[in-house]
Write a structure and sequence with these properties.
Radius of gyration: 17 Å
CATH topology of the largest domain: Rossmann fold
CATH architecture of the largest domain: 3-Layer(aba) Sandwich
Shape: globular
CATH class of the largest domain: Alpha Beta
Structural class: alpha/beta
Distance between the termini: 40 Å
Number of domains: 2
Helix content: 40-55%
Number of helices: 10
Strand content: 5-15%
Length: 210
């Protein structure tokens, strides 16, 4: 039996996943968590065969949660299931130790295939993502500007470039407006830019946002 922990702050997503997986022989949703801290606590208490993890959650992001999971238990496969397109986060999460990356638009049978593959020790990426990863490895010597950012800074860059205000980002990430402003200042400094418009142009050009 493959015991699965679902980590997502949206009830409707968790219920949808439970519905898909409950029909599959040999798979069981053993538990669920609504945020990173809850996920880490449940992982310490129980044994899971795979963790389905979202990226955007209030407080501790999925990326931070992933790094903490892997620091505590290197062997447990973590499958990222998110609304963010591959271009935004896939390379970053795979480098951080994720076993696979799926968008929430994926078909249910693709999800089941991915769960089976990662629990058997494999990696799961789509064909288009495999191509991007190959290209990324070739270009790795020339670091792109956004790759110099920390995970939190990168998250803020994507949100600014998507048209969110500082206060909206602060609320969504459960941080203060002052903290987000500090992140923004650091992003501008690291990327050698002066305005949100420049950041947005860069993000669109590099397909970080659409």
């Amino acid at each position: 039996m493959i015991n699965i922990l679902i980590v997502d702050d949206h009830t409707i997503v968790r219920e949808g996943l439970k519905q898909i997986i409950s029909d599959v022989p040999g798979m069981d949703i053993a538990d669920e968590a609504t945020n990173g801290n809850e996920a880490l606590a449940k992982m310490r208490e129980n044994r899971f065969d795979v963790i389905l993890l979202d990226i955007s959650m209030p407080g501790k992001s999925g990326l931070e949660t992933l790094k903490e999971i892997k620091a505590e238990n290197q062997k447990i496969p973590v499958l990222i299931l998110t609304m963010h397109p591959e271009e935004q986060y896939a390379v970053r999460v795979l480098k951080a130790g994720a076993s696979g990356y799926l968008t929430k638009e994926s078909a249910p049978d693709e999800l089941i295939t991915a769960i089976r593959k990662v629990t058997n020790g494999g990696k799961y990426v789509s064909a288009s993502l495999a191509e991007k990863l190959a290209f990324h490895l070739e270009a790795d010597t020339e670091k792109l500007l956004h790759e110099t950012l920390s995970d939190r800074e990168y998250q803020v860059l994507c949100k600014i470039s998507s048209g969110n205000t500082i206060s909206e980002i602060a609320e969504e990430m459960s941080l203060s407006v002052k903290t987000i402003s500090t992140y923004r200042a650091r992003i501008l400094e690291k990327m050698g830019m002066k305005s949100n418009a420049e950041l947005t142009y860069y993000a669109i050009k590099n397909q970080l946002v659409y």
